[in-house]
């Protein structure tokens, strides 16, 4: 299988991962009059398909013991189950994130949700495996919390500009963030657990089973939100089949973009370690916020206070990532 053999290649893959994770949601923003619950079916198919494509190309180079098919056949069953459970948890978190984007926009939903995920992920990782500089990790967590607060204040300041705001959207972001921070330990277990009856999963195998778990869980999570939506009236599958062709294509494209970022992040972690790859990948919310502010004009007409809060969010989120990476470096 392909893995980076130099820091330069690993760094390019991690930066690409952050750009992909911070950019995929533009595909949903580009769909008009199409409910996110319907869009999400195509997205879920897209993330699974690209993991299969990359797994059977990049992940099958050399056909050695670590290649996709050989790794899957030798893997411990508990690792496969753990990864699919992680995929189901991720999928619920991501569904809530898309709902929050629908309600509050990219510049708010991403930093709040993923900022909380960063806090939860760092704290859980340190409790499970207390490695790294505890002081720097704590400082990084504090900066991430401040960044989330600043983004929330920026959103609240939109009301003074006559823009509608919703406490419900912030609650959805918070729940999404907590769940988004919970799925990673399941994947870490699958990538490190080796037993007499089976081996740990490699990055390409993890991507396949993670996205498969996400796709299958849509028949629980997404069907529920179709019947009891967070916004608007209930929808059914007939709406999916009547959906615009561009909506289906953009949904698949969004899944391909996110899935590419996931594979690249997991593969780069083989060289740099999970902590560094995770920290750089978590700069995705700043990418998403830039899309929201510059491309979608989500803060157009907002007062200087809102823009100040937004600027402080960028500063503190950047500091949080640097401190977490330094603590684990």
Distance between the termini: 26 Å
Low-confidence stretches: none
- Rg from Cα: 19 Å
Secondary structure tally, helices: 16
What level of helicity do the residues show?
over 70%
List how many beta strands DSSP finds: 0
- The best one-word shape is globular
Class per helix and strand makeup: mainly alpha
Main β-sheet, in a few words?
Answer: none
Q: How many domain units?
A: 1
What order do the SSEs take from the amino end to the carboxyl end, as H and E?
HHHHHHHHHHHHHHHH
Give the percentage of residues in beta strands.
under 5%
Strands, helices and their partners?
Elements: H1 7-23, H2 26-29, H3 36-55, H4 68-74, H5 77-104, H6 106-128, H7 134-157, H8 167-180, H9 184-192, H10 203-217, H11 221-227, H12 237-241, H13 245-272, H14 274-281, H15 284-295, H16 304-328
Helix pairs in contact: 1-13, 1-15, 3-10, 3-11, 3-13, 5-6, 5-8, 5-9, 5-10, 6-7, 6-8, 6-15, 7-16, 10-13, 13-14, 14-16
Summarize the entry for a quick read.
The protein has one domain (7-328).
Provide an overview of this structure.
The structure is a single chain. By secondary structure, the chain is mainly alpha-helical. The chain has one domain. The chain is 75% helix and 0% strand. The protein contains 16 helices and no strands. The protein has helices spanning 7-23, 26-29, 36-55, 68-74, 77-104, 106-128, 134-157, 167-180, 184-192, 203-217, 221-227, 237-241, 245-272, 274-281, 284-295, 304-328. α3 (36-55) runs antiparallel to α11 (221-227). The two termini are 26 Å apart. The mean pLDDT is 90.
């Amino acid at each position: 299988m392909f893995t980076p053999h130099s820091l330069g290649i690993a760094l390019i893959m991690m930066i690409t991962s952050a750009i992909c994770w911070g950019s995929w949601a533009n595909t949903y923003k580009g769909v008009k009059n199409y409910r996110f619950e319907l869009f999400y079916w195509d997205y879920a198919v897209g993330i699974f398909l690209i993991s299969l494509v990359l797994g059977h190309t990049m992940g099958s180079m050399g056909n050695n013991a670590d290649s996709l098919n050989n790794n899957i056949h030798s893997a411990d069953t508990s690792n496969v189950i753990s990864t699919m459970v992680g995929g189901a948890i991720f999928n619920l978190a991501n569904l809530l994130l898309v709902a929050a984007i629908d309600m509050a926009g990219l510049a708010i939903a991403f930093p709040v949700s993923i900022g909380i995920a960063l806090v939860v992920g760092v704290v859980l990782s340190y409790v499970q495996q207390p490695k790294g500089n505890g002081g720097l990790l704590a400082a990084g967590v504090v900066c991430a919390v401040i960044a989330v607060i600043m983004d929330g204040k920026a959103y609240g300041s939109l009301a003074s500009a006559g823009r509608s705001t919703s406490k419900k959207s912030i609650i959805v972001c918070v729940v999404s963030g907590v769940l988004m921070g919970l799925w990673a330990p399941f994947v870490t277990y699958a990538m490190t657990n080796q037993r007499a009856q089976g081996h740990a999963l490699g990055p390409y195998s993890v991507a396949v089973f993670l996205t498969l778990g996400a796709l299958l869980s849509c028949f629980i999570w997404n069907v529920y939100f179709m019947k009891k939506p967070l916004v608007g009236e209930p929808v059914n599958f007939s709406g999916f089949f009547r959906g615009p062709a561009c909506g289906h294509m953009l949904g698949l494209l969004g899944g391909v973009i996110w899935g590419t970022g996931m594979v690249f992040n997991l593969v780069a972690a083989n060289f740099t370690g999970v902590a560094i790859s995770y920290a750089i990948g978590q700069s995705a919310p700043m990418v998403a916020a830039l899309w929201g502010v510059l491309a979608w004009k989500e803060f157009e007409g907002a007062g200087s206070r809102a823009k100040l809060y937004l600027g402080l969010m960028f500063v503190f989120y950047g500091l949080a990532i640097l401190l977490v990476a330094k603590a684990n470096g």
